[in-house]
Amino acid sequence: MSENTAKQNVARLSIFSNAFLTIAKLITGLSIGSVSIISEAIHSGMDLAASFIAYFSVRRSAMPPDTDHAFGHGKYEDASGLIEALLIVLAAGIIIWEAVNKLIHGGDTLSADLLFIGMIVMGISACMNLFVSQKLMKVAKETDSIALESDAWHLRTDVFTSAGVLAGLILIQITGLTFLDSVIAIIVALLILREAASLIRRSFGDLMDESLDEKEMEKICEIICRHQNAYTNYHSLKTRKAGPDKFIEFHLMMPHATPLSQAHKVLQEVEDELKAEIPRITVIVHLDPCDGRCNQETCTFVCRRKT
């Protein structure tokens, strides 16, 4: 199975599971008058919308570069992650509004006879979301897909919130304190907002061409430095990411008397190693001639300072 097929299959699985859970939670929440279950239905509805967006984005990001998108379509996944995060914020706002309104003005009395059904639905929701989120996260890590990872975190949050609502329903059944329903709904919303903040930061960072993380930068420098005896310096290292695709650009300074064919060979060796050890990477290297005036003592090249 190809990488793109795996991504699309797991995205479809997320759509189907979220559609089922949204309907089940909404019917149950309205039947027993539970704002926490209704809030979970809203959350699952937002997850469903996010799943559609993720599915669309992984399909679009898989398209090859064209004349209008020379660097590919990876930004679709970054945009998807940001949109999904904003949907989470919207869902959390609706949940908090409904819960606070019920705390202040009161609401329908919970149907004690149907609380058990609510518990069953929340238990099923937690189990289903745990299973699907694990599938999503596995494929997301294998393909470096922020869209699928965002979708996975949506569902993982649902696991905890569904479990929280389940615990709340049990407490209501035991104590009869129905206000706990609204309190739990607010806690659910705060957990959702925390997730949204993290997704917004990551997605926005990629959209703004934030550099690769420190670990990847160290790996890139280490690979370039393996060939330090063949060149005099490198500088202007720039990196960015678009969905699962990574882009590296830097200048490689060669001794001024180096033949072009030899310089190109060194460049090709560095580029090949980068591509072999860092998946889905595009490398752009600009060759600069060295003026020949540097020496071992005064050279500012980081590799030589470490030797």
Automatic annotation (TrEMBL):
Keywords in alphabetical order: Membrane, Transmembrane, Transmembrane helix, Transport
Domain Cation efflux protein transmembrane, residue spans: 13-208
Topology within the bilayer: Multi-pass membrane protein
Membrane-spanning ranges: 15-38, 82-100, 112-132, 165-193
Gene Ontology cellular component terms for the protein in this record: plasma membrane
Molecular-function GO term, any one: zinc efflux antiporter activity
InterPro entries: Cation_efflux, Cation_efflux_CTD, Cation_efflux_CTD_sf, Cation_efflux_TM, Cation_efflux_TMD_sf, CDF_Transporter
GO terms under biological process: intracellular zinc ion homeostasis
Gene3D superfamilies attached to this UniProt entry: Cation efflux protein transmembrane domain, Cation efflux protein, cytoplasmic domain
Record localization: Membrane
Occurrences of domain Cation efflux protein cytoplasmic (ranges): 212-290
Pfam families: Cation_efflux (PF01545), ZT_dimer (PF16916)
Primary location class: membrane
Name of the protein: Cation transporter
